[in-house]
Amino acid sequence: MMATPLEKARKDPESMKAKILKAARKIFGEYGFHGTTTRMIAAKVGIDISTLHYHWGEKGDLYEAVVLDIHEDLRNKLIQVERIIHGLPLAKRMEIAIDEMTDFLFRHPEISNLILFRYFGKTRHKSGLDIHVPEYVSDIARSMELCSDKRNVPVSARMKVLAMMNAIHNFISGEGFFRPMLGLERNEYIARVKETLRFLLIPAFVGESKGERVKAKEKP
Question: What domains are there in the chain, each with its CATH number?
């Protein structure tokens, strides 16, 4: 089967397809689908508009590729983190996961921006991202010991995972607003975000896990 433009771009990071994709991630992440034009992306790469259309087709095609690209990056990072934390006590798993995911998302803020644009910006363009969010939620719920089977995740567990994900994404996406308000340099802001996320999330999830184990023991 013929490789898609996205597969070709990911396979060859120095190709023109990859350069356009990289620029598109940044600009879609900053301005959203409706605030971005293909001319803006072409200008960022230093090419004419016809070259962009030759490699990626219409704006919607490129946006869809960007969404799927960030999904793949996020999925790969979650797999990597799970390998690092597997088998550790829950509090330690969460501490490492928060640090790893926060650093990753601060390096790639367009991921958080695009996720928040998609769900809170009323973007009319449909994207493949919606398909994969339940997969993320289920994997994280199982890793956080909120359920034993990711194929049967209670609504309460999914809501807790969504709350955690939104807390992280909002700190990343809101940096331009929060950091000046707090008067912090970027490195200090990142450190404070991690500190705050650990303060909020670790006791909540560790307490939840312990509470569930106590309930299980009390059952006749």
Answer: 5-218 (1.10.357.10)
